[in-house]
Amino acid sequence: MREKDEATIAVLGAPRSGKTTYQLALLAGMTAVGGRFSLHAHHEDGVDMFGRWQAIVDGGQVDVTDAAPVRRVFTFSRGLVPLTDVRWTDFRGGALDTKGGPGGASDTAELYEELARADCVFVMLSGEHFRRPAGRRPGAELLGETRAHQISRLITMTCTRRHEAALPLPALALLVTKADLVDWEERAVGDVVEELRTLLPVAFGAGTRTAVCRVSAGPLNGTGQGPAQRGSAAPSGVHLPLLFALAEHYRTRAIRLEERLAASALRQEQIGRELAELSPRSRWPRDRRHGDLQQELARIGRERAGDRAWADRHRAERRALLPALKAVAMFQDGRPVASGEQEDG
Amino acid sequence: MAEPGPGRLWRPVVYGRTLRADSWWRVRSEGADGRWLEGTVLDAVASGAGLADGPRFVLAQGGRARLVGVACRTREISGSMHEAGGRELYCFVGWVRDGRTGGPAFADLRESWRAWAGEVYERAMAPVWAATPFEAQRTDPGSPVPAPWPERPAPAAGAAPPAPPVAVPPEDWAELWDRARAAREDGAVVLGWSTARAAHRTAGSVRLGVRDPDAPRLVAAQPTGRPPFPVAAATVALLVLVLVLGGALALSGRGGTRRPAPPPPASASPPPSPAPPSSTALALALAKGAQVVVGTGRKGSFLDYDGAKVASGEDTVGTALPEGTPATRQACAAALATAAGALAPRPAAPGPALCVALGGQTAGITIERADPGRTLHVKIVFWPGWTRSGE
Predict the structure, then answer these.
(1) InterPro entries, per this entry (chain A) (predicted)?
(2) How many CB atoms lie within 10 A of CB B30?
(3) Is B331 strand, coil or helix?
(4) 10 Å Cβ neighbour count for A320?
């Protein structure tokens, strides 16, 4: 069986921003994309999640998420080929409101750990807040309801620590959830993006790679709260944040593998020079050192073959995703970029 | 009226969110081991799964503390504080005290849990129900209160320790609960899961009461054509699986590296009626620090999990099967016949199936899924009786 790699998605969002509903809609929606890409939950998780989605379809709503994070692993496939295991933990929105350190909430502490290893951070912002223009500066009420301050603080903390450790920054996907509540003919996407810039400036700062995605689980009940009307569930755009996250994941991994290949090529050259310089005298120490160097060369050769194969695969998988992301608003260092420009990003 | 003695005082535990605040610990005792308490409550609540079908009753012993409580839909115990934003809420209400005794008789609990839990819930929730998220952050440590249940004599402590199969049908819940009330060792009873599958997925407890008597039991494999074994006979003949302290908190992923001594072994008296089943299958979720021990009277463990590696106890014989070979009785017998000794530490990840044997019990272990540093999902099939050639 072909080996899969692993990606981690961390999700930040205020209470009632649609985190759990989005995950259920994503799973339901990805099985209906039409076969090119798919997402499957592992084991009984799939049965459980489809049952919960069906409850929404039948006119219900998701249960509240409590202080026990719900950990899931999904497998992303292209066609029939499983490619990547996606780790995704669903936290309650209130985890943003509590401390995570000593004496704090344990699920908040776990959220911080997820952020530390995330390949992509999804920020859930309910479309309820974007139905009307917010004005030049977001008001205190909007900042509070979206938890923009807390989310900004966590993203800044995560990026700072990654930078200090010379690790790549996570990609950022800003999801306008319940996008069906917004009249997109009246409100231009560009205007909403500008409001997002003022709400979460950290998502458009130097070194960031960010996408803005409109997602909807369906009109549900037209207000963004309460049980769905029967038959109103209709996922739309839900796959785009995931495809963006994976495209960025493959890009970042390919870059790091190329760096590793460059470093191992240097080491190969070094070993080659040392082998050539081994003294012909003192036979026993020479033979021993020769053996050690040859073993190291062989090991490096095997690792390079593996790294090359993975790097090539990551680049190929990223290329396969880019066409689907053409219509997604993407930004690098805060400047708009087209998905094609991201090819060599 | 005489003051209740200290043995009758319990500290309340209330877990549930408010109207406006997505924070959940309302009343939480500072005396009990916080990790154990949190893990036990979260395991029983299971994010509300199945509570629409009915409550779950909890009796748990963890170190010095004993917990009694109920996880339920909040509507069952409060007429006014049970919904937020149009969504039904769920909660846990309980009582905890220092000691290894106490708790209501099951019959009393079933009759009066709504009244008992409702009173505690209303008292805890009323002052903060409409509070802002900031105001509702504070958790109340709770003050000792008299137990709401009448004192009833527990079964004598000298009775055989309860050693049921993991899943227990409703007709055995009362006996299971009352035996647990008399027991002293660590463990938990959670009664009220809708199905064995739901219970399996949150198998942080040793003993799980399953509401649907027709659901497949976690104890599998009755011999063809034989009637199902009575609970009592099956329990004595089968193995006692114990998830030791810290290892029992599978959902939360908590668990320290400390490994307390395993509990006393179950009675080894042979059952008077039908022969034991030919195999027993269990699916477990092990947290870091968990051990799977066997109540055979010998020391040793089938499997130890430290969060990164698995190994067996040094008295256990263990080996791995070739990649792709399923853990059948025949395959394990052949592999163990030439095994050198205990199962050496190896990565806790899906891979070759493992075979272990100790004290006349053999088991095949398949690692199904590993969350690094957290929960290890394994399937274990036990076969009674094994001797290595030459012994």
Answers:
(1) P-loop_NTPase
(2) 10
(3) helix
(4) 18
- Residue to mutate among B33, B40, B87, with most A CBs inside 10 A, is B87
Q: What's residue A1's pLDDT?
A: 58
Would you say A251 and A343 are in contact if contact means Cβ atoms under 8 Å apart? no
Q: pLDDT tens digits, chain A, 345 residues: what are they?
A: 568 899 999 999 999 999 999 999 999 888 755 568 999 998 778 888 888 899 888 888 888 899 999 899 999 999 888 999 999 999 999 999 888 777 778 899 999 999 999 999 999 999 999 998 877 677 888 899 999 999 999 999 999 999 898 899 999 999 999 999 999 988 888 999 999 999 999 999 999 999 999 999 988 877 777 788 887 888 999 999 999 999 999 999 999 999 999 999 999 999 999 988 887 666 666 788 888 999 999 999 999 999 999 999 999 999 999 999 998 999 999 999 976 555 444
Instruction: State phi, psi for A326 to the nearest 5 degrees.
Output: -55, -35
Determine whether the interchain pair B45/A65 forms a contact, defined as Cβ–Cβ distance below 8 Å.
Answer: no
Tokens found for residue B117: 């839990």
A334 vs A121: CA distance, rounded Å: 16
State how far the Cα of A67 lies from the Cα of A94, in Å rounded to an integer: 8
In this complex, do B47 and A226 lie within 8 Å of one another by their Cβ atoms?
no
The first and second tokens of residue A166, run together, are 């010379």
pTM above 0.80, yes or no: no
State whether B38 and A106 contact (CB < 8 Å).
yes
Residue with tokens 């009755």: B222
The answer to whether the CB of B111 falls within 8 A of the CB of B98 is no
- Establish, for the pair of chains A and B, how many residue pairs have beta carbons separated by less than 8 Å: 76
- Dist. CA A26–CA A235, nearest whole Å: 7
Amino acid at residue number A288: R
DSSP letter string, B30-86:
SSS-HHHHHHHHHHHHGGGTTGGG--EEEEEEETTEEEEEEEEEGGGT-SSSSEETT
Name the percent of chain B lying above pLDDT 90.
Answer: 26
Q: How far apart are the first and last CA of chain A?
A: 31
Give the Cα-Cα-Cα angle B363, B263, B58 (nearest 5 degrees): 95
B17: contact with A, CB 8 A cutoff? yes
The pairing of beta strand B207-210 with beta strand B167-168: parallel
Contact A44 B368 (CB under 8 A): no
* Residue A61: closest C-alpha in chain B: B87
Q: Report the distance separating Cα B177 and Cα B103, nearest Å.
A: 10
Query: Pseudo-torsion of CA B372, B373, B374, B376, nearest 10°?
Result: 60
Q: How many CB atoms neighbour CB B376 within 10 A?
A: 26
Contact A106 B22 (CB under 8 A): no
Q: Which residue of A has its CA nearest to B48?
A: A63
Closest residue to A67, CB basis, from B42, B85, B369: B42
Distance of alpha carbon B305 from alpha carbon B289, whole angstroms: 6
CA distance A18 to chain B (A): 13
Is residue A226 within 8 angstroms of chain B, CB to CB? yes
Q: Does A71 lie at the interface with B, CB-CB under 8 angstroms?
A: yes
The two tokens of residue B87 are 């969504």
Q: Which residues are CB-neighbours of A195 under 8 A, at least 6 positions away?
A: A130, A133, A134, A138
Predicted confidence (pLDDT) per residue in B242-297, tens digit:
332 223 322 222 333 233 333 333 333 333 334 444 566 777 777 777 777 654 44
User: Which chain B residue is nearest to residue A226, measuring alpha carbons?
Assistant: B86
Which DSSP string corresponds to A195-216?
A: HHHHH-GGGGSTT-EEEEEE-B
Chain A positions touching B88 (Cβ under 8 A) are 63
Chain A residues whose CB is inside 8 A of the B46 CB are 68
**CA B218 – CA B197 distance, rounded (Å):** 8
Q: Do A64 and B90 touch (CB under 8 A)?
A: yes
Q: Are A216 and A178 in contact (CB under 8 A)?
A: yes
